[in-house]
Design brief:
The chain is of the alpha/beta class and 391 residues long. The protein folds into two domains: 2-168, VC0802-like, CATH 3.30.2130; 180-390, Rossmann fold. Helix content is 39%, strand content 20%. The strands form two sheets. Strands 1, 2, 3, 4, 5, 6, 7, 8 and 9 form a nine-stranded mixed beta sheet that branches. Strands 14-13-10-11-12-15 form a six-stranded mixed beta sheet, with helices on both faces. It is elongated and about 85 Å long. It binds adenosine-5'-triphosphate (ATP) and magnesium ion. Magnesium ion (MG) binds at residues 186, 188, 347.
């Protein structure tokens, strides 16, 4: 019996989804296999009684690395390194003893779960029989409430698996099962986090970034690439549309002198959404994702969100809408994008920004300004010059 060569992987939510269950399980299985294989891990994966069992190759010993990989697979609720035993009571007792030999503790409790109801003992009986065996053969004590370790025994229709530690994971739905979205990603803190949340709900994310090259440097684009590289740990590979925005911005700039200056940000955003919608058509994506949160900055008041959203026929999803900045920052640190996001960059070029952006841009005024612009042509020109990167 080798103590750490099996990993029991549990998924919570996808078990609930009725007819979709098989589809979701296949996607999760595929994503787990892909994640382990791209790091060169050798293993066998089987689905047994509503969970996945990964059997690691003899030579695999870097458990920290393997845990790190699994923790980034969206759709896993938790996993555990386990020992395997035949579904016979004497073997299970031995397995429990050998598992506990390596752990340092005084009190324990047993929690048996039976997926195979043909097993001759109930979960409670199994807890009692194995518990008694441990107490008799060691100096450990049972404590149902204040225990040092919880020994889980999972009876599947093939084998029994025993473990003591659960590693909590991201949860969510496997990337890919919900379809495709286009996420507007800037170099800031918020949009990588909103992209992550779209992935967490099973979306495959295509990225679009608007840059003001040559007014902004090539570093801004490097920054986006580096952020997307980090997000790839959740979805493996990504496509980025890099859309030139400087011409469009200067066109808006010259048409918004004087009193209209304050509408610039809202106008830029309307064009970003128009362009993103075009890309969503090309990509057959179902929705756009942005990193807006109500009231966070001047362009994100409800009035402005309404005026900005009006240009789009496709749903615009805003996963961070109710988040405080601090919550977003904590999440960015957790997923690993924060350190890159805070590097200095020129956000779609500050030279085009008004001193005091409108906080209540009404749609009539904005439309009036747009009447002086050749909206369709500006959109078409920018799309034509977009570059596509695969990361
Ligand atoms: P972030 O931290 O994501 O940049 P923010 O708080 O700075 O957000 P804004 O700059 O007002 O807010 O942008 C709101 C949202 O608009 C962003 O979260 C992003 O989805 C989108 N966006 C803004 N600038 C760009 C850009 N240059 N390219 C692509 N999307 C952008
Ligand atoms: Mg920004």
């Amino acid at each position: 019996m080798d103590s750490d060569k099996y990993i029991i992987i549990h998924y919570a939510e996808i078990a609930l989804k009725g007819n979709n269950r098989g589809f979701f399980e296949d996607a999760l299985r595929h994503n787990i296999e892909k994640a382990l294989k791209r790091e060169g891990i050798k293993f066998l994966l089987k689905k047994i009684s509503g969970r996945f069992v990964v059997q690691l190759d003899e030579e695999e010993k870097d458990y920290e690395k393997i845990s790190g990989i699994l923790k980034n697979v969206i759709g896993i609720a938790h996993f555990s390194y386990a020992v395997k035993s035949p579904c016979e009571i004497e073997s299970i007792k031995d397995a429990a003893m050998s598992l506990l030999k390596t752990k340092n503790f005084n009190t324990f409790r047993l929690s048996a779960v039976r997926s195979d109801k043909k097993f001759p003992l109930t979960s409670q009986q199994l807890n009692e029989v194995v518990g008694e065996h441990i107490v008799k053969n060691s100096d450990k004590k049972v404590s149902l409430k204040n225990f040092d370790v919880e020994v889980v025994i999972e009876i599947t229709d093939r084998d029994a698996f025993l473990y003591v530690e659960k590693e909590g994971c991201i949860g969510g739905l496997p990337v890919g099962v919900s379809g495709k979205v286009v996420s507007l990603i800037s170099g800031g803190i918020d949009s990588p986090v909103s992209s992550f949340y779209a992935m967490k709900r099973g979306c495959n994310v295509v990225f679009v970034h608007f840059h003001s090259f040559p007014y902004t440097g090539i570093e801004s684009i490097e920054k986006i690439k580096n952020i997307v590289k980090i997000l790839n740990k959740f979805q493996f590979r990504s496509k980025i549309y890099l859309v030139p925005f400087a011409d469009l911005q200067s066109e808006i700039f010259v048409n918004t002198a004087g009193n209209f200056e304050k509408f610039r940000v809202v106008l830029y955003r309307r064009f970003m959404l128009r362009l993103a919608e075009k890309i969503s058509e090309m990509e057959k994506a179902q929705a756009l994702i942005t990193g807006d949160a109500i009231g966070q900055v001047a362009s994100q008041t409800l009035e402005n969100i309404k005026t900005i959203s009006g240009v789009c026929g496709i749903p615009i999803l805003r996963p961070l809408i109710g988040f405080d900045k601090e919550e977003i920052i904590n999440k960015a640190k957790e997923i690993g994008t924060y350190e890159i996001s805070i590097l200095p960059h020129c956000d779609t070029c500050t030279r085009f920004m008004p001193k005091h952006p409108a906080t209540r841009a009404n749609v009539e005024t904005v439309k009036e300004i747009e009447e002086n612009l050749d909206v369709d042509k500006l959109v078409e020109d920018a799309i034509k010059r977009a570059e596509i990167l695969e990361i």
